[in-house]
Amino acid sequence: MLEKLIYFLIAAVILLVIALLHVAYLTYAERKVIARMQQRLGPNRVGPRGLLQPIADMLKLLTKEDLVPYGVDKPIFYIAPFISLVCAGTGVALIPLWEKFVISNINVGLLFILALSSLSAYGVILSGWASNSRYAFLGGLRASAQVISYEIAMSLALLSVVLMAGSLNLMDIVKAQINSPYKIYLIPQIIAFYVFIISAIAECNRVPFDLPEAETELVAGYFVEYSAMRFAIFYLAEYFGMVVMSALAVTCFLGGWIGPFEVPYVPFFWFLIKLYFLLFVYIWVRATLPRYRYDQLMGLGWKVLIPVGIINLFLTALLKLIF
Amino acid sequence: MEELLNELKEKFSSVIIEIQEKDYPTLICKRSGFLDLMKYLKDEKGFKYLIDLCGADYLEYKYKNFEERFEVVYHLYNLDNKILLRLKVRVPENDCWQYSVTPLWRTANWFERECYDMFGINFKGHPNLKRILMPDDWEGHPLRKDYPVYLEEEQEWKVYKELKEKVKQQS
Amino acid sequence: MATYLEINKKQVKEEKWEEPFYLNMGPQHPSTHGVLRLFLELEGETIVNCAPIIGYLHRGVEKLGENLNYNQTIVLSDRLDYIASAANNTAFALAFEKLMGLEVPRRAKLLRTIVCEMARICNHLLWLATHALDIGAMTVFLYCFRDREWLLNIYEKICGARLTHTYVRVGGVRQDFTQEIIDELYKFTEEFPPRIYDYETLIDVNRIWLKRTKGVAVVPAEDAINLGLTGPVLRGSGVPYDVRKFKPYDAYGEVDFIVPTGKNGDTYDRYRVRMEELRQANRIIRQCLDKLPETQGEPVVAEDAPDLLIPEKIKKPEPKPVPKKGVIFKGEEIPVVPPGEAFASIESPKGELAVYVVSDGSSRPWRLRVRTPSFVHISAIPYMAKNHLIADLIAIIGTLDIVLGDSDR
């Protein structure tokens, strides 16, 4: 009993550190990749090829002055970033990395991750309200409405996967994919995959859906009044969300850790490859597309994605009935 | 062009004092009856585009042959016939107002605000005559000829003086 | 604070009292291009009323111009629309030449046209970069700046400065082009049209871009003329008014170009008008470069143009000198300019830039008035932004192509 507890603690700490490193270097990778797409070099001064850039950013943010504006609601102001971070980061514990390793293998894993992403909307709303500022308030309103509407689309996409796999347990979903062509759910569930990817980009408030934090319009929206480490926490929470959503997509649609051939000593090799590819898609989309206006964004979520999700659900149910 | 000028001279002989032929035909008008002339030019003759509206201060101008101090200058343009017309209205200093042409051309709104800000000429009938380029509580009208290019220490703007004091105290 | 708007207070109901929501997009904001302050009255996200407040960059160009020589005011004019400063210089020079009755040699006219069209390309590239960046497409920004760097390097070879040129002077230009500059300009005109195609592929048929710009801020033609809009904004609404065709100046009478005109008057049409103007500007530069060898050897300044000499640096004159016009001897001002007035307007990249100058016979203007397009365009924002969302307001500011140095002078 005690050994199991210690084992879990150590595994959790190691996984947390690795996930944090991934998130930090995701910021670096984003800057480099976008720079190359725009015909310029990214950061290349700090460390060899700029590899120590995230560490430099962290140090800078740690040593900045922590401004708390006048008239804010202090308890909520202090708590809000942590809500975002915790809700975004806890999902890492549920993703199965390889056949024998998942930190918590609960039977309702998928539902738990969806619930966590709903909770993260609280972080946004509370931070927008507690900063005593109109810009933050507008940003918070927009963000909360956006997050809620795209969650429905995401849940519909994932429901189709659950129908096909027959269970909410993430490990079982990956194992159930062995029966599909190429061992992934992508081909039967291509519509659901697209709906999920678009909703995931909207959930994380990334371009083209990043109106709540649009730099040129609302001057960073709901976290405009946060500085130094609190801003860093929001920033981390956003990239954590990206990683968790991509990992979820890999688990549900792309087959988790299953690959064409076994790589010795590195059981999570295929998982990481697929994860990195999806993260690259996130960055690619950011460099290319302009931003949606707010009413068009909501229109896309409600009028396009949700009907498509429902149709996909019916089709999946039909197919499962027939075959 | 000639017929246009002759026609205007006949129709509005009480308003137009003189027609000068400089680089563009210039009509010097009186203040009373000016709005009718502008309305005629805009509606009947098709001068739909007001290029510019500005003021000029002629205090101690060497070649001056009139007694009023200010002049308000209008440049009108006819897009179909490509005619540019310049109209001038003379405004005395002690009776410093002029009719506003904002109901006819909406661009005149900000032009007249700037003219008021820089010269102090009031425009009757303007919806919102306030200072536009200078701060709202500025005193004086900068483009007048008796306004210096550099202000003395005592005449500086109050807000700026307070700011300088504050900075001196802190350092 | 709420007195900036002419507000009709909502009717006070007995129990509830509704207060409108005011938002101040202050002078410091990433997407108002300069220090523009917009005071908005919002209802949800829809703008009910909007009051622009300018004057944060007012430097008193008109007052300063009354205390400087004619050639010295050209330096002031650079800083008005600091993105395309060759155009401002040309406007001032044209007005002064009309006043003095100077005849500019043909080679100077061609050089001026080339520099003005280069300024037009620079300005439209910057416009596209910031407009796209505001709407969210980051990559277009960097592509445009890559080309703009090329042009600014050519400018540095021509006149020594990248942004504020003071190249066009009263009577002509400062100095002639070298062969190196002409070769590089030929190379530029060859390689530029494929690059315009590059920018267009990124955003032209992108559905998000179309949704953000089609139908936004439609201005019918009548209202546009009444509001005083000029330049690409007016041409997007369907009125083909271009000062280069209506009142030709410099070498525009000799070259062959079309004036693109839009149909609906919305943001997308203005975007297409400006992209087409980029191609036409390229064409004009090419034609002027082809005509340059004919005028080889001509002077680039008119013979009787006034000189820019600082009084203390001239030698003491011999008794009974024949003074060159424009030089101020100590205590004595030689009449340079016949007293009178002049009005000249050009097609600057943003709209119609007009200069009205009154002279009293001395070497300094009596009254210098600059009518800038940005001033008029900012006054049209309340009309255009009614019943649009805040996100559209950013697109509107971008499509009007406002520079605060131009508007505040």
Write a structural description:
The complex is a heterotrimer of chains A (about 325), B (about 170) and C (about 400). Chain A has about 325 residues and is mostly helical. Chain A has helices spanning about 1-35, 55-60, 75-90, 110-130, 135-165, 170-175, 190-205, 215-220, 230-255, 270-290, 295-320. In chain A, helix 1 (about 1-35) runs parallel beside helix 10 (about 270-290). The N and C termini of chain A lie far apart (about 45 Å). In chain B, the strands form two sheets. Chain B has a five-stranded mixed β-sheet. In chain B, strands 6-7 form a two-stranded parallel sheet. In chain B, about 25% of the residues lie in helices and about 25% in strands. By secondary structure, chain B is of the alpha/beta class. With about 400 residues, chain C is α+β, with helices and mostly antiparallel strands. Chain C has helices spanning about 60-65, 70-80, 85-100, 105-135, 140-160, 180-205, 205-215, 220-225, 230-235, 245, 265-290, 375-380, 380-385, 390-400, 405-409; strands at about 20-25, 35-45, 45-55, 170, 170-175, 330, 330-335, 340-350, 350-360, 365-370. In chain C, strand 4 (about 170) and strand 5 form a beta hairpin. Chains in contact: A-C, B-C. At the B-C interface, strand 3 and helix 3 of B face helix 1, helix 8, strand 8, strand 9 and strand 10 of C.
User: Largest contact between protein chains?
Assistant: B-C, 38 and 41 residues
Largest β sheet strand count, sense and barrel closure of chain C? 3 strands, antiparallel
Order of H and E elements of chain C: EEEHHHHHEEHHHHHHEEEEEHHHH
Helix proportion of chain C? 40-55%
- Shape by Cα distribution of chain B: elongated
Strand content of chain B: 25-35%
What general form of chain C does the structure show? Answer: globular
Fraction of residues in helix of chain B: 25-40%
Assembly status:
heterotrimer
Low-confidence parts of chain C, pLDDT < 50 over ≥5 residues?
A: 6-15, 309-321, 328-332
Strands in their spatial order, largest beta sheet of chain B: 1-2-5-4-3
Largest sheet of chain B at a glance?
A: 5 strands, mixed
Order of helices and strands of chain B: HEEHEEEEHEH
- Radius of gyration of chain C (CA) equals 23 Å
* Distinct helical segment count of chain B: 4
